[in-house]
């Protein structure tokens, strides 16, 4: 069973930094005044004149000075207060959606986990099994990779497009983003190339190889990237994000190959207007923290987030060395 989760509701959030959802309920001024008169005369034994005097001298000026201007900070404004059942149902649904997300997705809005189904969980179970055959491991990994790539492509920018159907009817849809390229981190990232090619006809794919231990400071071993990569949206391909160091090393090298300027994070994301990292499984929380803190504009798409890293910096429960298992070199 799913453990219960706490949801906190605050009357106000003054000087609070964090992730929260703000809504404001509004009712007409005469309704507010009528409620106050009824409450103070019936429940508190005050006379109407004293209630009106307090309202005119303190309550309404305070509302105009502090409550009314705070509307511009509200994510949602609910007219008619508690009687607006449709708006309240929308808020309840929003809270339920947030509660269903992984905790890291609440911290980093640029992390996307595709919706889990029994099919996806079943494929995860199979490729994590150490006794699965190489043929089945590749088959189910390719299925998952295709789902992750398709989901990742859905986060790319698009333009509206109209076409005429065979029934001579105008259909308004969207046009695929044209200027794309993939960059696979050798060698595990190469396992994702076929899925990207199957989704994006004729896409250019570059390669980059970085030594994990730094190779005496020369971390970049090999790179072959599209010459016009600075004009394209980049999809950085890597099936497993463990510590995140390999990805954070790959991005500056990809950047430096397209411009001779000194690395500048703001210019980097101006140059590469969109960088997306489709990752199969598993992601470790440590790796997500590492990448998102250093490059908060990157979008990371994955099919599942694992628990943690062990003392050997391996993802737990994990799936072993993905590249070795996929290419059959784990013997």
From TrEMBL:
Cofactor(s) essential for the protein: Mg(2+)
Pathway given in the UniProt record: Pyrimidine metabolism; UMP biosynthesis via salvage pathway; UMP from uracil: step 1/1; Pyrimidine metabolism; CTP biosynthesis via salvage pathway; CTP from cytidine: step 1/3
Domain Phosphoribulokinase/uridine kinase residues, every copy: 27-86
Position of the signal peptide: 1-18
Alphabetic keyword roster: Allosteric enzyme, Glycosyltransferase, GTP-binding, Nucleotide-binding, Signal, Transferase
Pfam families according to UniProt: PRK (PF00485), UPRTase (PF14681)
A biological process from GO: pyrimidine-containing compound salvage
EC category: transferase
InterPro entries according to UniProt: P-loop_NTPase, PRK/URK, PRTase-like, PRTase_dom
Domain Phosphoribosyltransferase positions: 116-329
GO terms for MF: ATP binding; GTP binding; kinase activity; uracil phosphoribosyltransferase activity
Enzyme Commission number: 2.4.2.9
Family named by the database record: Belongs to the UPRTase family.
Protein name: uracil phosphoribosyltransferase
């Amino acid at each position: 069973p799913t453990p219960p989760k706490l949801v906190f509701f605050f009357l106000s959030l003054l000087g609070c930094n964090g992730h929260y959802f703000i809504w404001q309920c509004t009712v007409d001024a005469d309704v507010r005044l009528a409620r106050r008169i009824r409450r103070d005369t019936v429940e508190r034994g005050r006379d109407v004149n004293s209630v009106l005097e307090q309202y005119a001298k303190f309550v309404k000026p305070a509302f105009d000075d502090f409550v009314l201007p705070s509307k511009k900070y509200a994510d949602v404004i609910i007219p008619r207060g508690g009687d607006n059942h449709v708006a309240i149902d929308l808020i309840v649904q929003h809270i339920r959606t947030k509660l269903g997300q992984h905790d890291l997705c609440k911290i980093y809005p640029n992390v996307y986990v595709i919706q889990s189904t029994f099919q996806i969980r079943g494929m995860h179970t199979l490729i994590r099994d150490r006794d699965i055959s190489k043929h089945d491991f590749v088959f189910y990994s390719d299925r998952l990779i295709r789902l992750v790539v398709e989901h990742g492509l859905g986060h790319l920018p698009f333009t509206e497009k109209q076409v005429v159907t065979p029934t001579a009817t105008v259909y308004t849809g969207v046009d695929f983003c044209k200027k794309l390229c993939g960059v696979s981190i050798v060698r595990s990232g190469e396992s994702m190339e076929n899925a990207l090619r199957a989704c994006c006809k004729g896409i250019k794919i570059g390669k980059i190889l970085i030594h994990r231990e730094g190779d005496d400071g020369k971390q970049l071993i090999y790179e072959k990237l599209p010459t016009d990569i600075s004009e394209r949206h980049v999809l950085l391909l890597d099936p497993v994000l463990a510590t995140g160091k390999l990805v954070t090393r790959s991005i500056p090298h990809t950047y430096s190959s397209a411009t001779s300027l000194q690395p500048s994070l703001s210019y980097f994301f101006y140059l590469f207007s969109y960088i997306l990292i489709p990752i199969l499984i598993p992601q470790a929380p440590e790796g997500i923290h590492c990448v998102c803190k250093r490059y908060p504009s990157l979008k990371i798409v994955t099919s599942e987030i694992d628990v943690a890293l062990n003392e050997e910096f391996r993802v737990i429960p994990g799936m072993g060395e993905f590249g070795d298992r996929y290419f059959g070199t784990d013997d």
